[in-house]
Amino acid sequence: MDERKAPSPELEPNAASAFLAQIFSAEADGRSEDAVFDSIFDQVDSWMLDGRMHLCDAVFEELLSTYFSRCVEKPALSIGFLTISGPVRDSLPHRQTFLERFRRAMIESRGDAETQDLLQGL
Q1: 122 residues of the chain, pLDDT tens digit each
Q2: Are 89 and 95 in contact (CB under 8 A)?
Q3: CB distance 102 to 69 below 8 Å
Q4: What is the number of other CB atoms lying within 10 angstroms of the CB of residue 101?
Q5: What values do phi and psi take at 31, rounded to 5?
Q6: Any residues with CB less than 8 A from the CB of 59 and at least 6 apart, and which?
Q7: Cβ–Cβ < 8 Å for 74, 35
Q8: Burial (Cβ within 10 Å: 0-12, 13-18, ≥19) of residue 55
Q9: Rg of the Cα trace of the chain?
Q10: Cβ atoms of residues 30 and 66 within 8 Å
């Protein structure tokens, strides 16, 4: 049985911010969507497996505070974050806040039907 001990949150205060800066920089630099998704899935999955839910939750907190307008303009990355974190949604309070606000913004910009299709199951 693999018993990994999660590092203290105090030791990694900027990990989520640094990760998101890399993701949005890669996206802005024209890196392929598949490569950006791979980076998202690899990092978030690693944090989940290590029990570092505070970092997964910090991603959504940062998406809300720093990157929200970009999330609405280009929703694919947000959907990626929401998809990979689905299995641990109950451990991520900022995820639910992000999803609710994201859903409202998407309805305003794309309409109810398209938003329902995009966010179904998230």
Answers
A1: 444 444 444 446 689 999 999 999 998 999 999 999 999 999 999 999 999 999 999 999 999 999 999 999 989 999 999 999 999 999 999 999 999 999 999 999 999 999 999 899 88
A2: yes
A3: no
A4: 15
A5: -60, 145
A6: 16, 19, 20, 44, 81, 85
A7: no
A8: buried
A9: 14
A10: no
